[in-house]
Amino acid sequence: MIRFENVHKSFGKHEVLKGIDAEVDKGQVVCLIGASGSGKSTLLRCVNGLEDYQSGRISIEGETIDAHAASIHAIRTRVAMVFQRFNLFPHMTALQNVMEGPVHVLGEDRREVRARAEDHLRRVGLAEKMDFYPSALSGGQQQRVAIARALAMRPDAILLDEPTSALDPEMVGEVLAVLRDLAQEHMTMLIVTHEIQFAREVADGVIFLDQGRIAEHGSAEEVLTRPQNPRTQEFLRRVTHPI
Amino acid sequence: MSPLSERIQEYLPLLVTGLWQTVAVTLISLVLASALGLMWALMRSSGSRWMSLPARYIVEFLRGIPILVVLFYIYFVMPEVGLDLTAFQAGVMGLALTYSCYIGETFRGGIEAVDRGQIEAAKSIGMKHGKMMRRIVLPQAFRIALPPYGNNMVMLLKDSSQVSVISVAELTMQGKMLASSTFDNMTVFTMVAALYLCLTIPLNFLMRRVELKMGAAT
Ligand SMILES: Nc1ncnc2c1ncn2[C@@H]1O[C@H](COP(=O)(O)OP(=O)(O)O)[C@@H](O)[C@H]1O
Ligand SMILES: [Mg+2]
What we know:
The structure holds two protein chains of two kinds.
Chain A: E1 2-11, E2 14-24, E3 29-33, H1 40-47, E4 55-60, E5 63-64, H2 72-78, E6 79-82, H3 94-104, H4 110-123, H5 139-152, E7 157-161, H6 169-184, E8 188-192, H7 196-202, E9 205-210, E10 213-218, H8 220-225, H9 230-240
Chain B: H1 4-44, H2 49-63, H3 67-77, H4 87-113, H5 116-124, H6 129-159, H7 171-182, H8 185-217
Helix pairs in contact in B: 1-2, 1-4, 1-7, 1-8, 2-4, 3-4, 4-6, 5-6, 6-8, 7-8
The complex binds adenosine-5'-diphosphate and magnesium ion.
């Protein structure tokens, strides 16, 4: 579904992605792991055109993604994104946040969207908080609203950039539980995460990114339990046994 | 001289007419300056050089000219190129142009202070630039810009006295004429100052209230 073919990306002279080849199939959950600065966020952001890339090709169901083309707006409605820092719209309630895209971008019927948005919010456990503004919600609740906002677009795939990294430890679980549910329903997801245990449970594939290159790519079992690359081994040692 | 209370009663009607003119000049200029200022700000943050550069030059150009000169120019020079304006119209135009720069910068500051993550979130649900501005960026930018906008408003109100130089019959002008015909400078200008305060003090108070309310809502 999402396909990377020899993708190169630089910020000025600094090459951040050095030839990425990978694929995320429909219904798959792929976790992207790697040290800070290895290019995980950049790779993710290239998929919905928040960053451009210089060469190679990223495509979704065969359609090339080009951040500068007019088609990017339509592509973004099909590839939702969940941010590390939630980025909810602060002047809208949780429900309005979730309804915003379907109503004002896709032009869908407000009443239908409302019913659907309420369902999504109930699903992520926020039935009681629909009319709250983001500032009145905890980090974990805000991130769940953000996930509901992504789901409301009925996307083909969801990109998640460290969805639990900005959360207090006691809230990580509630967000991962929602993602686990989505994985079970075969929502296509590309997730940047440091939650190795979570990746082991839900990921169909794991990509280890090292300084802009894919150092290891395989099933969760292969990459996380029996990593071949010494850099993967070293990275896993550090994140699973922090000193 | 007649007793103070009598003199005050005598001067008041004339000064109050001036006061209404001041209010009219201020309100009309404010509306125009806000609309123009919003346009400058939107052009500057459009992401297109063809929009942002002209706006930037216009604003820098206008800001470099004293308001009195702008007023003289509009009132005395424009008729020579066929644009005849009443003193009131010229005054409003001069104030609106000058203040569109300050207000434009205020709005631009607000727009730029909106968190980058908001723009990315808006884009990520497929919003195009215009809708993103309208629905996501501007509502937040206005909130941020509100306190400086309030300042602009009070400054505009006070600077509306400048249009007296092209003989708009607003409060300051009426005071000047009254003082020169009665020689009662102290009473007249004290009354003029008091009447300005009757506008600025409530306005400041109102702005603080609105700010508090807005602050509580986020
Ligand atoms: N907008 C940018 N401008 C310049 N350099 C950037 C920008 N964004 C990221 N980088 C650089 O690209 C590299 C990869 O960043 P990033 O994709 O954020 O890594 P990760 O998400 O894996 O921590 C880093 O060296 C970072 O400094
Ligand atoms: Mg990152």
